[in-house]
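pasting input
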Amino acid sequence: MLYAVLCYNDEKAVSAWTKEEDDACMARLGKVEDSMKAKGKLGPVARLLPTTSATTLRKGSGEPLIIDGPFAETKEQFLGFYMVDCESLEEAIDFAKELTKANPGGGGYEIRPVGLYHPSEIG
Amino acid sequence: MMVDNAWIAAALTAARPQALSALLRYFRHLDTAEEAFQEASLRAIRSWPDKGPPRDTVAWLIFVGRNCGVDGLRKARHNVALPAEERLSDLDDVEVGMAERLDLGHYRDDILRLLFVCCHPELPANQQIALALRIVAGLSLRQIARAFLVGETAMEQRITRAKARIAANPVPFDPPDAEARLERLGVVAMMLYLVFNEGYSRGHADPAAAQLCDEAIRLARLLLHLFPAEPEIMGLLALMLLQHARHRARTDQAGQIVLLDDQDRALWDGAMLAEGRSLVEKALRHAEPGIYQVQAAIAAQHARARHAADTDWGAIDRLYQTLEVLQPSPVVTLNRAVAVSKSRGPAAALALIEPLAERLDGYFYFHGVRGGLLLQLGHGPAAREAFNRAIALAGSPAEAAHIRLHLDRLAELGPPPPAAAIQ
């Protein structure tokens, strides 16, 4: 069974870490990843850039509303994600627009640039 | 949950601007608000390791700080004893209610006011910066004094004087209307960029100076959280990130400035560059160009080039032309000249900057750029004269040393080095 493990924390507190604290935390996490990697069980790993760099497409009737900032969760839940390699934010928005057409109704898509990416180790 | 001292320190630093600005709204007096926050922080340090951290640290600090402040005022008035610690023992229910009332709208204006207070027009730039670092970022007097290369007593006096001026000319507490809010935002953005530049211009070999850059970035990020759709705030944060990303490559082991052309691009911070570039893209979608966005777009052009030779100098020249329209200034034209020298040659660049000679005569960088262009054109003696003038005007030893490097090369009569460029 594939599992996605989602990471949550207080973004303001994390961005108040010094570079040394951030590096130390990443090193500790890296060790945990390594043990999974050794077993050939580690899929892609990504650290997202802060929510200030997010752009959100809110679905509604007609064209989706494009909003700066993260998806403000109200009654929706996190259901899935795509990883796409785009030339520009515009290209990513176009892709997300296609998704909204294929899946109209409620909810939306949040586009977050990826700051750190390790490709999948799973065959 | 693991709550060690480092965790608490980071949480308090992160919560400070929001909590302190709410306390300022409540007490309407800066020193009282600061003391209340201080007391709340001490209680956090005492109680969080045992009881665990609250769900909402900001709300906890505001609530406790408010009680401490009120008690402090009461004590000052009637000299009664402080209440027992137990009063603060179970804040969970209160916390939830507090958090609900502290909506984003309040936060926004509170924090903007706190930052705006530091930008009082009566305060000179260096006092604005010191005040913001002390009050908003919560740096200690010692840290700020070190960053400014002055003694602690002198810095304390500077901050005390600044506070006295603010107290004499208070910022109104009514929520600003949309126009006033935007105006405050612009003033605050400029102050944050001053903080950043104070650190950046000093060079990052000095950790105290580098900390100024970190704090400016942190506060700009906070501002963008509060105003997520303001393209100029995206631009401001992007500009800082893109410049700061190069800090490890900007000075060599000897503390000398390394020009952009000669920097080891592998030392650039990839995550910071990615964040900066993505913010530039986001901002440009708004099609409301501003000075920070354009400068960030210029920095992003440099960030895109894997090697110095890949730089699109034509695009940078066009961006500087936009900047000249938005912010006409001889310094902008001077920077544009560097791009012109790369895309159209040193003669065209020299023609662009010669008319600026009178206005920029006291600016070291003007003479540095001019010397570099003259050198490329083979005018050795004139180049030497310009470099000597630049050394005499240099603001830091690293800058002077850098110009001296050009002079040394001139003495060797080797191949002409690249023109002095944007760092």
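fyi Residues 24 and 42 of chain A are 21 Å apart (CA to CA).
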